[in-house]
Specification:
- This protein is of the alpha/beta class and about 425 residues long.
- It has helices at about 15-25, 30-35, 75-85, 100-110, 125-135, 155-160, 165, 185-190, 220-230, 250-255, 280-290, 305-320, 320-345, 365-375, 400-425, and strands at about 5, 10-15, 45, 50, 60, 115-120, 140-145, 175-180, 200-205, 235, 260-265, 275-280, 350-355, 355-360, 380, 385, 390-395.
- It has a seven-stranded mixed beta sheet with strand order 6-12-11-10-9-7-8, sandwiched between helices.
- The two termini are about 40 Å apart.
- The structure holds pyridoxal-5'-phosphate.
- Pyridoxal-5'-phosphate binds near residues 65, 152, 237 and 240.
- Belongs to the class-III pyridoxal-phosphate-dependent aminotransferase family.
- Keywords: Aminotransferase, Pyridoxal phosphate, Transferase.
- InterPro entries: Aminotrans_3, Aminotrans_3_PPA_site, Class-III_PLP-dep_AT, PyrdxlP-dep_Trfase, PyrdxlP-dep_Trfase_major, PyrdxlP-dep_Trfase_small.
Amino acid sequence: MTTVESPGTAAGATDADTLIGLYRTRMNKGRATLGELFGRHVELASDGVWVTGEEGRRFLNCGGYGVFITGARHPAVVSRVAEQLARHPVGTRLFLEPQAAYAADALVAHTPEGLERVHFACGGAEVVEAAIKLARTQGRTRLVATEGGYHGKTMGALSLTGKDVFQDPFRPLLPGVEHVPYGDAAALERLVARMPGEACVVLEPVQGEAGVIIPPAGYLREVRRICDTHGALLVLDEIQTGLGRLGAWWGADLAGIAPDILLTGKALGGGVMPVSALVATPEVFSVFDKDPYLHTSTFSGSPLAMAAVRGALAAIEDDGLVDRARALGAQLLAELRTIAVRHFGAAVADVRGQGLLIGIEFTEPGLAGELLIELLEQGVIANHSLNSHMVLRFTPPAVLAPSDVTFLYEAFDRACRAQAAQYFPSVPTH
Ligand code: PLP
């Protein structure tokens, strides 16, 4: 039995049996079962692209649902957060606080033209809620989202998240929400044209949880035009796609557009702090300006989180992580496709990606999940996709070294071989 010691706290047993027991009795039985399904692995420490478990077992972290573009505990983030922790972690919310002011300024320096005003929160869904509220202040009460889109699970965000299995237990949801097929600009225009000046369109530049769905070329520009033509507000949810993930600072940049509201989160805390942000045009933000108590939350803009934001932005900028994500993404996409097709042939429906958001879609139900579990055995963490069980998703850090990339290829090759042997026992594997 291994234990983690930390000065001043009681050491606790960290073996899987103890933890599964505690999860089952004190947290969530289903989550305990998932822990068993995913191989009973325990995580105790992380550094860069590696996660360390029981008995020093190491895993290459190509998962994390898009959080770790900088890797874990990037020195630029840790140093700022540690310094802030020692000085002033949580603010009074009455005084002026420099970390928040400079974090907002640093974020705006990287967001598309015209987006100038920042509201910070802790999680992604929270800034989706803030966007829904801002849209209402602008008279845009009719929400339009996309099928398969993922925006989080608070009540407002869940109303936009296009997946019945998450919505059904909690109905009735927010009224006035409609979904259109993602990537279909004509369908969007037909709907939005029926609600002139009243619509707020919320979508992702590439759908992440839907299984890395890349829209047709020109789609986002068309969406911007449709919103302009029919007086709709455009909210771009870049919580997963932003901050270099797609090989650009934002999906908006790749499309050459600016939304009215841009949402970011996940990687914004540099893999250290939970933090998210809404960035809006001054016009859209104006009601919050008039009454700063209209939309507040206790930990919004907390100095510790703000230090992490400044660290994350500095790390992405100084280490050239946007360019690295673009180059690494192209390389990984090609090689992962070669390996997958070599072992699974026609059972690979598609391998697609933009930057370091890469999805492998299978024709066989269950294969993506089985491969995810086998990959964990081989020492690589990937993601399943919350809104698509057919897609295995990789969201690796942009700080992978060449030796890490080799490790990934070799582990993926072994995992594919093992799974192919189980799924297609009569077909010889390479
Ligand atoms: N929006 C997108 C595009 C996401 O991918 C996610 C989370 O996966 C969210 C919103 C919700 O973020 P959170 O889970 O931090 O609430």
